[in-house]
Each structure stands twice: as structure tokens, then as C-alpha cells.
Design brief:
Elements lengths: L2 E8 L8 E7 L6 H11 L3 E8 L2 E7 L4 E2 L4 H12 L9 E5 L2 E8 L2 E7 L4 E2 L4 H7 L6 E7 L2 E6 L2 H6 L4 H6 L4 E7 L7 E7 L4 E4 L6 H12 L3 E6 L5 E8 L2 E6 L1 E9 L2
Parallel strand pairs: 2-3, 4-6, 11-12, 13-15
Antiparallel strand pairs: 1-2, 1-18, 3-4, 4-5, 6-7, 7-8, 8-17, 9-10, 10-11, 12-13, 13-14, 15-16, 16-17
């Protein structure tokens, strides 16, 4: 018998929206090379691999090309599967041991809330190559921040953000692992909007990104003067996130729905 594998659309309650993630529940720990091959086969922005430990689950994330240190939507998808397939009781907290330390998830009705470490951005200058690859006029770029190898760019409007059509070949060569472009929302339904581009890690545009909220939640909380925020990721698939800045931690909430169930035979 092979390993069970599920495909879950995260940060949405509607099939074929949000961000799809593969979730593989392992019967025993697996080699990283095999997990990378599975992630390449699934060809989704992230594939998650879970193996049970005494006090939770080991969790690793892979894009089609690299292993990641942190991923929000695949963690949300993993928690969803652990409850849906009854690995955990409905009232039990999901505990994940990861490269980014212990992460937890709890249920709140139809929503799942993740507890992640905050990662505030340090003020920075936007590399010219990055702005040019995005095709954004320099006059449209507001505040800029940097977190490790990733950049945050606030632009002047949601219209500017939605109009971005990156040159992905140039963006892959720009001095940034990934870039989150954000603005205030034009709609009263949301506090801010965001798009995320990461061709260097095999994800040209991420449909919905949980991990960037570790940076965006403190960023927008400070600017808007509120801790609890509602975000919309304006990718073609789209997704909604509830975020809350709690000092050194960030709460990231979303819904999820399973769209495929299968078994890995190799």
C-alpha cells in the first residue's frame, strides 16, 4: 500500500479557488529526494509531507524545485486533512514540528487559525531590476521593506497592483527570492490586498500566500492602527485571509476544501 495524498484548496471555501496544496500523510519518514520528486510530480506551488511524532506531526514543505522553511497555505491544508480524515479529534490542536519551529492550528467553526512567528520587514530600497521586472512605475512605489531575501513593496493603489504583469524571466534574475506587492484595498470589505511573485523558487505567482502574512500583518497593523485585519490576495484564483498581529506571533485564518483524494504508488 502506498501513501495517501490529498489535494486541498486553501484560503477558500469554493473548489478551484484559493491556493491548491498536496498533502501526503506518510506511514514513516521519507527521504528528502523522494519528497522533492513527488512535489515536482504534483506541480503545485507547495506539497506538504506529514509524519506522526509523539506530540504532533513533523511537517515539511516542497515547491516543485526547493524545500521551503515556511508555508502557510500548505500548513492550513495539512491541518484541514488531519481533522477531516480523523487523525485528530475536532477539538484537538494540530501541532507541527517544522524548520520554523513549532506551529499550531486550531479550529474556529469553518475557519482554521494558524499560529506563526512574526517577521517584520526592515526598511530597504527597492532594487531597480526588481521594479523594472514588475513593470511598476517608480513613482507608484511607496514604502519598501526586506525580510531575509524577500522584498515587500507597497504600491499607490489596488488598481496599480492588479495591473502588474511581470516579466518573469527578468524577475527570476532580480536580487530577490520573492516579492510581495501590497496596497490598501479599494473595497471596504478588505483592509489590504496583496500579490506574491516567486519565480526563483518555482512559483511565478502564488495564488494565496499564508507565510507572507507574518510580515504583512505587522506592517498593515501599524499603518492602519488595528490588530485584526482582513486581506485579499488578488491572484487569478483569489483568496481571503483573516490576520491578527500579536506581538512576536501572527494569527492567520482561512478556510479549506478537499478537491482530490488519491494514493501514491511509487
Amino acid at each position: 500500500m502506498g501513501h495517501t495524498i490529498r489535494q486541498v484548496d486553501a484560503f477558500t471555501a469554493t473548489p478551484f479557488a484559493g491556493n491548491p496544496a498536496a498533502v501526503c500523510v506518510l506511514t514513516e519518514p521519507a527521504e528528502a529526494a523522494w519528497m522533492q520528486q513527488v512535489a515536482r510530480e504534483m506541480n503545485l506551488s507547495e506539497s506538504a509531507f506529514l509524519s506522526r511524532q509523539e506530540d504532533g506531526f513533523d511537517l515539511r514543505w516542497f515547491t516543485p524545485t526547493v524545500e521551503m522553511d515556511l508555508c502557510g497555505h500548505a500548513t492550513l491544508a495539512s491541518a484541514h486533512i488531519l481533522w477531516e480524515d480523523e487523525y485528530l479529534r475536532p477539538d484537538e490542536t494540530a501541532r507541527f514540528h517544522t524548520r520554523s519551529g513549532l506551529l499550531t492550528a486550531t479550529r474556529d467553526g469553518s475557519w482554521i487559525e494558524l499560529d506563526f512567528p512574526a517577521a517584520p520587514a526592515a526598511a530597504a530600497e527597492a532594487p531597480r531590476e526588481l521594479v523594472e521586472a514588475l513593470g511598476v512605475a517608480p513613482t507608484s512605489v511607496g514604502d519598501v521593506g526586506k525580510v531575509q531575501e524577500d522584498y515587500l513593496l507597497e504600491v499607490d493603489s489596488e488598481a496599480t497592483l492588479r495591473a502588474i504583469r511581470p516579466d518573469f524571466l527578468r524577475l527570476e534574475r532580480a536580487p530577490a527570492r520573492a516579492v510581495m506587492v501590497t496596497s490598501r484595498s479599494d473595497s471596504p470589505a478588505y483592509d489590504f490586498v496583496v500579490r506574491v511573485f516567486g519565480p526563483r523558487v518555482g512559483v511565478p505567482e502564488d495564488p494565496v500566500t499564508g507565510s507572507v502574512q507574518c510580515t504583512l500583518a505587522p506592517y498593515w497593523s501599524q499603518r492602519l492602527g488595528k490588530r485584526a485585519l482582513l486581506a485579499y490576495q488578488a491572484s487569478p484564483r483569489g483568496g481571503v485571509l483573516r490576520v491578527r498581529a500579536d506581538g512576536e506571533r501572527v494569527a492567520i485564518g482561512g478556510r479549506a476544501i478537499t478537491v482530490l483524494r488519491g494514493e501514491l504508488l511509487a
